[in-house]
Amino acid sequence: MMPAPYILLVDDEPHNLLLLEELLAAEGYVTCSVASGMEALEQAQTQRPELILLDVMMPDMDGFEVCEQLRTNAALQTVPVIFLTALDDDASRLKGLAAMGDDYLTKPINADLMLTKIDSLLRLRQLQQAAYETKINQQVRAFQAAQVKSRQQMLAAQKINEALSEKFRLFVPDQFLQRVAPQGVESIELGNAIESEVTILFCDIRNFTAIAETQSAQETFTWLNTFFTLINQVVEACHGFIDKYLGDAVMVVFDRSHRHAVDGLTAVVKISQALVQLNQSPAVAELGSPIRIGMGLHTGSAVIGTIGASRRMDTTVVGDVVNTAARLEELTKTYACQAITSEAVVQQLPNNHPFQLRWVAQVAPRGKQAQIQLYEVLGMDETQQPY
């Protein structure tokens, strides 16, 4: 049940206040009576009325002044005001309008007319309040819907960004990003680079051209991916990462501080072991002959970074260590070895390393002047931990 409307009565004549109180009480209104303009302002601020019946002719502050002050008060400026006065001239009516009164009734008051105007103003006020609340609720709902949509868009954008980042990492290893873009993918710029000592592994498939001639491109594509998947599994287990695939070859980087040489040699041995199992699988059996590979391993200083142009760049490793590793892989054909490593790698190994190495030769690889001691990688003692 709605509470009875509260009306403030303002008149300096007690008799008029008594009549108004009785009349309005009979209609179910709650009233409060004051005898001056100052009291009216104080009471209105203490308890906000829903309507004010305001006498005009009062000492100290007349009704017009009271109404003008009400209209300057943010909390009270919309309270409906009906002037009750004996002033029946046009000038007074205009003054009441100028003071922004809502209605103007002259004494003696027609009770039915006054009650009708009070009811009309209160219902109009309720309609305005309902319309205002409806508008506010609509704005709140629209704002909430916008927030929900914004959150959904942000979540969708975040998921897309995460998905793109995950896809991006399929092309650019985390180790690269940690070095050239530690603040995230967005911070990648052309020329971002860092120099450090690494071990590089080149692995190449022997007689690839002859194999590819005997099958369709799709068949070649299928078993190549099987082979590269095997390589990647071993490399990741040995703390390295693949820099790039070069048709039938792959270039691998090992960059763990003080352990990259051990990681590289371990990967060479594990790849050789995994290749034996792969050659026994049905996927390779269809090739007619087992897959044979050559591997070259070398340690040295390199720059890991981004290279290219501002609109097309790539991540890569640059340095003599890369060229030398590639040349060592070529020498595996000359010395009929599956894997050759350099003295630079061997010098990085601890004294009690588990690797089985055989000295091959001292040569200057193609395109180089300095000679290098070469060792064939035969295997490793599985009972010893290389780490």
From TrEMBL:
Q: Which domain of life is it from?
A: Bacteria
Where is the Response regulatory domain positioned along the sequence?
Answer: 6-122
**4-aspartylphosphate modification, residue list:** D55
Residues annotated as signal peptide: none
Residues of the Guanylate cyclase domain? 199-329
One Pfam family per UniProt:
Response_reg
Which keywords does this chain's UniProt record carry? Phosphoprotein
Q: Which family does it belong to?
A: Belongs to the adenylyl cyclase class-3 family.
Name of the molecule in the record: Response regulator
- Organism from which the protein derives: Almyronema epifaneia S1
